[in-house]
Amino acid sequence: LVRLAPAVVRAMEEARERRRHLATQEALELSERRYRAVVEDQADPILRMLPDLTITFVNSAYCRYFGLTRESMLGRSVLLHVLPEDQDAARRFLAGIGSGALINERDARVKDAGGAERWMHWAARGICDAGGALLEIQVVGRDVTELRRAMNALGAARERLQRLSRRLLEVQEDERRHLARELHDDIGQGLTAIKLNLESVARGQGSSMETRVGEALEATRHTIERVRQLSINLRPLQLDDLGLVAALRSHLDRQARLGRLTPHFEIQEMPSKLTAEVEIACFRVAQEAINNIVRHARAGNVWLRLFVAGERLALSVRDDGAGFDVATAQRRAAVGESLGVISMEERVALAGGTLQIHSAPGQGTVVVASFPVGVR
Predict the structure, then answer these.
(1) DSSP label at 144?
(2) What is the pLDDT of residues 174-224, one digit of tens each?
């Protein structure tokens, strides 16, 4: 019995050790099952890999996103899903994963189940043993393609706004120079002529009083007309006093005479009330379109239609002139070289409307703006 005692003690210790090992193994398996149950319920793709980038686990969301079975991915390199030109950067990113709670993040391009190129945001962290040695890397992904597109669109819109702002300042200065020149060269000279004629009459010098008064009256009429034209170009009084239809008809007739065009004006039943935003946007679009016809189209006729289509007010300005390439004009507008197109687009958008331009070389041009009828 004395000799058997040590063997019995060893056997009992081995049994206890086996029970402890079995309990530890069961606890690990339970923990693993719980972990897998948690990650399986996640909507984001999740995977784990060895330090050599061999995949050891993927959740169902990962399988769905890439259109592959779990069995086909286990044991393969995670670089399977990374675009070839991005693989070196992905290796460097994953090589930087170490021990601790630090999470490394980056965006990378991948191919989804349909073969489309998408952007995925990856958040990776290391899983280490008790001694701090890296055992695995866990990565959680999230598709950020639409977010990146929105950010790119926002950046492009910001650049476009900056270009437009610069161009608007340039145009504003040009308009101020033009107005100053008109005031100095035309109106100023007319007023000077009136002054000289009246001074001559007062002194009783030179030609007869009747001739001098006639010249002064003619200079006065010319000056009044120039002031009226300048005022109309800045803002037509008819728009405030008589409404949109009268302002459009007046501008069409005046510009048609200037450009030797035959005007055609068609109006259907109008809403009883339009917002000020819609009225001014509608007039400015027509003004820009008609002015462009006079300056560039080499047309013989211009048609202006104003009508209601459903719940929207539609404006159409058409000519039978030379036409132009719309795509080229839009590219020039996008870089701030053509303010006319972009100013029409911005005015219409601010009034809640839409703008369409149809044209081709030798086929004339149609500009159609549509606005909501409701009163704000």
Answers:
(1) -
(2) 776 777 677 667 777 777 777 777 777 766 655 677 777 777 778 887 877
Side chain identity at 91, as an amino acid letter?
R
Q: What is the CATH number of domain 42-143?
A: 3.30.450.20
Q: Confirm if 94 and 106 have CB atoms less than 8 A apart.
A: no
Helix 326-334 to helix 339-350 angle (10° resolution) is 80
What are the residue ranges spanned by the domains of the chain? 42-143, 144-234, 238-376
Instruction: Mark out the alpha helices in the chain (DSSP H runs).
Output: 4-40, 60-66, 70-73, 87-95, 145-181, 188-203, 209-234, 237-241, 244-259, 276-292, 326-334, 339-350
SS3 43: coil
Read off the tokens for 178. 């033009």
Quick: pLDDT tens for 328-359: 887 777 666 666 787 788 889 888 899 999 99
Cα dist. 148→54, 84, 142, 145, 157 in Å? 29, 21, 12, 5, 14
pTM check: above 0.70:
no
Say whether 238-376 and 42-143 share the same fold.
no
CATH topology assigned to domain 238-376? Heat Shock Protein 90 (3.30.565)
